[in-house]
Amino acid sequence: MTDAKTLDLKTVCECNRRLGSQTLHPQVTLINLEHHGLEEYAVKFEFYAILLIEECPDGCSCCGRKYYDFTNATMVFLTPGEIFRMNEDNTFPRKGWLLAFHPDLLFCTTLKAHIRDYTFFNYRKEEALHLSQRETATITCCLEHIEEELHHPIDTHTATILSRHIELMLDYCSRYYERQFIIREDRHKTLLRQFDALAAESLFSGKIQGGKFPAPGCFARPLGLSEAYFNDLLKFETGQTLTEYLQSKQIHLAKQLLLKGEATPAAISARLGFPSLQYFTFLFKKLTGTTPADYRRSHC
Asked: The pTM is what?
């Protein structure tokens, strides 16, 4: 349920009507936001929405831009049902574009099969993509191709061509997010050190039972990240999923405990949350090439 100050846009046609734009296709639209006229609302989109924000107020950090990010433009990606508001003063930016498309547009297209692979749709607004001048020009070119196709009479090729233009733009955004991860390397390494401490505390706490690891949100929330951004950051920086990372951390901590010689492999297995001694031995040998007992003996 939305509150009285949230505008619930259920269709693309309604979106065009409320934002003063012409409907060229009932399932997709591209809207210039300079004259949207919405100041008092947050907006709930019942379809996919992509914002290209070309102008932010000076010093605005509502989309997570930091001093080390590009400042030419910003992109925010919303899944159906999400609520967006730029900040307390404005629904939308003063300058920019809104690309909105209904999931039904993707029916029988290649994009439908893997749109969930674009995980940045599940990032928070504060984890937006910040573009350089050249990147902005590329995205703008993609939007121009979409607009050109929208002005073509609808035929049997329309949905396919539109979806391919959208897909190409999303592929560029994937590339640019990877570039942003590289630029934010120092900040991300700080977050990973914090995560590593959280992981060690979680494993040593005795709260892990039966080998069931905490959900990504248990680590993402203390770090101030969405689950999707946290998972992507971890994969990008370490090459591992959360489960793979925690398993590696378990084995690393197990090695330390084995070298101290104060506990049996069975006790270490229980302390670190392995489901059984047999599984601990199996995973330890898989990742190190030796059993816990042999590892201890070889390092005594």
From this structure: 0.90
